[in-house]
Amino acid sequence: MEVMKKLFLHISRLPSSPVLIVLVMGFTISASLGVLSIRWSSGDRESLAEKGQRLAALIISTNLENMMDLNRAAMRSTAESFMEDMDIESIIIRDGSGAVLVNTAKQSYRTTSIKVKKPFSVEGMKIGTLEITVSNASKWKNTERVAELIASSSIDHIWDYNISSLKAGVSSFFKDQDIKAIRISEESGIELVRLEREAGGTEELKIHKKLFRGDRFIGTLEVVFCDCSAVLQEHSRKNHLIIYMVLAIVFGAASLILVVRNNRRKTREEDLLQHDAAVRQPLTWSISGSTEEKMEKAMAYIGENYTSAISREGLAAMLNLNPDNMGRYFKMYTGERINDYINRLRVEKAASLLIETPDNIVHIAFAVGFENLSTFNRAFQKIREETPTEFRKKHHS
């Protein structure tokens, strides 16, 4: 630690501009290489995420009309057709309230998987949710074929009980570094061949096969596959990443010292004095007559325009007030926050429309100024202590 302090002190005494430029350039290059390493090491995951997003968008576009009609049978049918993709493990579709409409899943190999959630939206309003689980099961698609080749090449040797030829044939397959183990047993369970290796993979896939000659059962085959070659490449990338990040930290630390040295305009004592002065400054809030007039104008404006988008910042600019002060004054004057006040007016108008018109709830939500149905439902239930549907049924019964 003492050596590092002396090093930084020595650097800080060097001419500022050339050293600063060199160190900043070095930091930028090292950080860029580090980011590239991260991108390389996460390439498979990103490809999986991209596929998940693409499939989710396709499922939603196919089912949007079915969701609007709440046609469960049609949604289930399209979900089952998408499940034919070997990388899709599950599809769950929920309506706007969270109730499950479709839930279909299948077993897959023990591989990497991600979940993707996307909303069903109509004119900016969320009416449902799609959740799919996508895996990289397709990377194991050749394992079944390899296991079948091992099995077919072994059957005659087992039948003839030619163990040396059996071992020689199996050993040729074992050269593949993504095969962790091969075990062959005869029908009685006695093991004929066992080839195993220590492997550094993160995932394993076991395939079991029963071996037949004609209709007669003659033994079993077990092949254990792993992602060893991919892991070796990943270790190499991580080693490069560590080197790049160490360089970035060294260059960054040295650059930071020079930046602080060259841009020192205030001392720590001055900052503390200013902070203490700010802490001791009393904060008192009161509403003057002119401020009351501004709050009345704000309430009038909201009353005329609550079906449109209204923001605290917009009101503050209209009344020549600081946005934070606008919020405090409005709460002191009305007893409500601006958003709560606006939502109350919108809910009251929506309640009238629910009683007086046959319009559906979605159109009423948009008509009174809400951006989506879920926000409208939450606000209505908070203020009226019942949902819009319950309110309409009660008043139309």
What does this structure look like?
This protein has 397 residues and is an alpha+beta fold. It has four domains: 2-41 and 231-262; 43-139, 2-Layer Sandwich (Beta-Lactamase); 144-226; 289-396, Arc Repressor Mutant, subunit A (Orthogonal Bundle), CATH 1.10.10. It contains 15 helices and eight strands. The strands form two sheets. Strands 2-1-4-3 form a four-stranded antiparallel sheet, covered by helices on one side. Strands 6-5-8-7 form a four-stranded antiparallel sheet, with helices on one face. A hairpin with a 2-residue loop joins strand 3 and strand 4. Helix 2 packs antiparallel against helix 7 and helix 10 (312-318) packs across helix 11. It is elongated.
Taken together, the total number of domains comes to 4
Give the CATH superfamily of the largest domain: Homeodomain-like
Helix/strand order: HHHHEEEEHHEEEEHHHHHHHHH
**Total count of strands:** 8
The whole-angstrom Rg is 34 Å
The number of helical segments is 15
How many angstroms separate the termini? 79 Å
Strand order, main sheet: write it out.
2-1-4-3
Structural class: alpha+beta
In the CATH hierarchy, the third-tier topology of the largest domain is known as Arc Repressor Mutant, subunit A
Coarse shape: elongated
CATH architecture of the largest domain: Orthogonal Bundle
Q: Calculate the mean pLDDT score and round it.
A: 81
Helical amount: 55-70%
CATH class of the largest domain: Mainly Alpha
Task: Give start-end ranges of low-pLDDT stretches.
Answer: 37-44, 276-283
